[in-house]
Write a sequence for this structure.
């Protein structure tokens, strides 16, 4: 890469080398952690375009997350000799040479000629290159902000770009103004690097910027007050002028650059924004339709903003202040509604990820993966997620009619549900036979990891030897909670997950590894299904691909992306943007968005035929409540034992069962009614104690399989474990049946081929 070097820029290069990078003879050496890392873990790739294109990129830089000369040199060394595969089977490749550390902030990398048309392949390969972290750290002398500002305006590009990145790590207004000026007045690499620098600065120095803006605002108000004064004497005038000079100095010192004005926007954007303003004006002037909403500027702009959110993806949206408050309550596990968590599939359908235990929806019989098709008789197809939430939520005690479509049904069914205040539980746990702990994590809400850790400690006090983590119907939640729980089980250095977002943003790229030097060591099995999503999948993937747990159940939902809620600062706190900002990758490098995680031991989901669902609905709850009033309340001790410990599928254990069954006049079998009756009896005792049942080992065949597998890992014979021995033979029978089905399936496949 040929460059024109002037005397001034040559002096600047020498100055940068002398000031920023200490020579090896004067460097102080400290020992570091000599562990394997990937380039994507310590830095991120920056192309000249905001998002790298498939062709035309001749070079790129690696920007280190922390200024570290030794790390920059190690990155450059690791990149050199890397081969970029350009064809199938890796038969054609292009080797990278000439990578060099420009400073402790930046590594320059030329792209081989053969790979110029494949910048995306270059990025994918480079970020996964592994190397040993340096065992020695080069001690660097500090450099002043003033010197960096000077270097950021010189001709030599390497010096200029390194200085811009270094300025992003200073917290002065001068540094910020230099970055803004470079972004608004320059082009190409300088503008690209300044944009990245601004993103880094704003994410790390938000408090500094807020304080600067406050100081400027205060000084501005003081200046207005001084201007309103009317001095009556020469002396008063001189005092006023002196005060105004002092305030003006404060304004100049604290004035942050204004955000780019509309006039600086691209001409097409300027035209489109003007067109939107004109559309609003035309609507207000001529519209005579049946719109139920207001036509004020505020209402129409709100509709436009929400439309932008819905345009992005099914997880992004625009929040008004009221919706943001509801979102915050949801993350704290408190809100008013019917008690479901929602997702939206690629067809735009509203999927119930999970009904919340004890909620009105749960009591009404709503199931995970049900589809909401209507609310109070109005079809919800095509409406926004926020609008659906608005229709479903309301005042406690009011009734909302939810139209539900379920797999296997020919027509939707209406569920009248009474809204109530919902407090979502986070963790349910109990000790099972064989010292197997069962821990059901319902969501990754605030402090979920604290509740999870307390549950583990309590189980350990009960002599815990193996653990089942039940993540079925878990819709996810906070990233921090997920990472903290995974950290409990993995050894120090094992990878939990990594993220990749827009280059230059705070989510541009990061990887998380366990820091635990004393992880939990007992055998673990994880239960999943098609409603295990987001954080539940990140935890599942971390445990699966570090060979820390066996995954049992069905393939997970497939949400491999993360969102954050950003405040729209110019809206005075009235608007918030819930935005997808990264995709996450499991330890095996896979992003499971739209694909999900396959379990180690897949189990077929038991589907209830529609006729049976109709028959259950036709019965309703009333006859079971009458049975409970007549029989259960008279002998609660005996019935509670049936609810807690199981009934061995024996209908005769229920007093008056034959008479009760005949009175129902139903096509359901005796075993169907026995199961239903026990369900309502358990609900009776759960409601009476205000404590949900943790699980139902008798009826839950997936839990039985999990118990069987974890006992095997513990070195136990499931057939000899008291309390489980009555289920183990059935489990083994189902295992053999599944093997036979697989053999038959393979034979059919061979015939087709």
């Amino acid at each position: 890469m040929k460059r024109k070097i002037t005397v001034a820029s040559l002096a600047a290069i020498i100055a940068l080398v002398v000031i920023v990078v200490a020579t090896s003879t004067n460097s102080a050496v400290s020992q570091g952690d000599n562990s394997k890392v990937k380039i994507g873990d310590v830095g991120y790739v920056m192309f000249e375009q905001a998002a790298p294109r498939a062709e035309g990129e001749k070079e790129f830089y690696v920007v280190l997350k922390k200024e570290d000369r030794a790390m920059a040199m190690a990155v450059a060394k690791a990149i050199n000799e890397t081969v970029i595969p350009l064809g199938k089977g890796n038969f054609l490749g292009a080797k990278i040479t000439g990578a060099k550390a420009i400073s402790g902030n930046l590594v320059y990398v030329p792209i081989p000629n053969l790979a110029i048309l494949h910048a995306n392949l270059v990025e994918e390969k480079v970020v996964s290159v592994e190397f040993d972290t340096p065992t020695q750290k080069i001690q660097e002398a500090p450099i002043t902000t003033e010197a960096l500002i000077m270097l950021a305006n010189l001709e030599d590009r390497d010096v200029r770009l390194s200085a811009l990145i270094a300025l992003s790590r200073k917290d002065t207004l001068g540094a910020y103004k230099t970055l803004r000026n470079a972004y608004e007045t320059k082009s190409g690499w300088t503008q690209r690097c300044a944009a990245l620098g601004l993103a880094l600065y704003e994410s790390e120095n938000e408090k500094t910027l807020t304080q600067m803006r406050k100081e400027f605002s205060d000084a501005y108000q003081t200046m207005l007050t001084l201007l309103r004064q009317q001095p009556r004497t020469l002396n008063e005038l001189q005092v006023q002028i002196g005060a105004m000079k002092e305030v003006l100095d404060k304004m100049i010192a604290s004035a942050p650059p204004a955000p780019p004005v509309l006039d600086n926007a691209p001409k097409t954007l300027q035209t489109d924004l003007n067109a939107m303003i004109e559309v609003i004006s035309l609507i207000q002037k001529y519209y005579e339709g049946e719109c139920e909403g207001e036509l004020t500027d505020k209402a129409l702009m709100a509709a436009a903003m929400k439309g932008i959110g819905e345009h992005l993806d099914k997880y992004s949206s625009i929040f008004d202040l009221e919706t943001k408050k509801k979102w915050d309550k949801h993350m704290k596990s408190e809100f008013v509604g019917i008690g479901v968590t929602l997702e939206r599939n690629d067809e735009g359908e509203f999927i119930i990820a999970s009904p919340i235990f004890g909620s009105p929806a749960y009591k009404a019989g709503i199931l995970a993966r049900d589809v909401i098709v209507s609310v109070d008789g109005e079809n919800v197809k095509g409406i926004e997620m926020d609008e659906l939430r608005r229709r479903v939520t309301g005042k406690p005690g009011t009734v909302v009619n939810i139209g539900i479509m379920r797999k296997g049904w020919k027509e939707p069914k209406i569920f009248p549900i009474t809204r109530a205040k919902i407090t979502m539980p986070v963790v349910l746990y109990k000790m099972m036979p064989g010292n197997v702990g069962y821990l059901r994590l319902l969501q990754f809400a605030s402090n979920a990891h604290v509740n999870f850790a307390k549950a583990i400690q309590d189980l350990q006090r009960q002599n815990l030897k193996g653990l089942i983590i039940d993540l079925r119907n878990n819709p996810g939640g906070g990233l921090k909670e997920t990472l903290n729980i995974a950290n409990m089980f993995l050894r120090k250095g094992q990878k939990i997950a990594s993220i990749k977002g827009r280059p230059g943003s705070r989510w541009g790229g990061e990887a998380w590894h366990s820091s635990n030097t004393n992880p939990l060591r007992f055998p673990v099995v994880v239960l999943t299904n098609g409603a295990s999503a987001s954080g539940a999948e990140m935890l599942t993937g971390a445990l699966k691909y570090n060979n820390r747990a066996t995954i049992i159940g069905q393939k997970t939902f497939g949400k491999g992306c993360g969102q954050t809620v950003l405040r729209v600062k110019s809206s005075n706190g009235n608007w918030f943007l819930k935005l997808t900002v990264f995709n996450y990758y499991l330890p095996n490098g896979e992003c499971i968005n739209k694909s999900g995680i396959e379990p180690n031991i897949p189990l077929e989901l038991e589907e209830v035929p529609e006729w049976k669902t109709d028959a259950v609905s036709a019965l309703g709850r009333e006859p079971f409540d009458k049975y409970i009033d007549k029989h259960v309340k008279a002998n609660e001790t005996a019935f509670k034992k049936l609810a807690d410990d199981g009934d061995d599928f024996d209908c005769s254990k229920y007093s008056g069962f034959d008479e009760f069954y005949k009175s129902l006049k139903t096509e359901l079998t005796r075993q169907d009614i026995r199961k239903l009756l026990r369900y309502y009896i358990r609900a009776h005792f759960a409601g009476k104690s205000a404590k949900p049942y943790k699980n139902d080992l008798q009826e839950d065949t997936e839990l039985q399989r999990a118990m069987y597998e974890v006992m095997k890992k513990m070195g136990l014979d499931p057939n000899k474990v008291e309390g489980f021995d009555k289920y183990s033979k059935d489990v083994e029978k189902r295992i053999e049946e599944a093997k036979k089905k697989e053999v038959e399936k393979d034979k059919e496949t061979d015939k087709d081929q």
User: Anything to note?
Assistant: Residues 1-33, 258-266 have pLDDT under 50 and may be disordered. The radius of gyration is 32 Å. The chain has five domains: 7-202, 205-260, 334-417, 427-602, 609-753. Residues 560 and 593 are 4 Å apart (CA to CA).
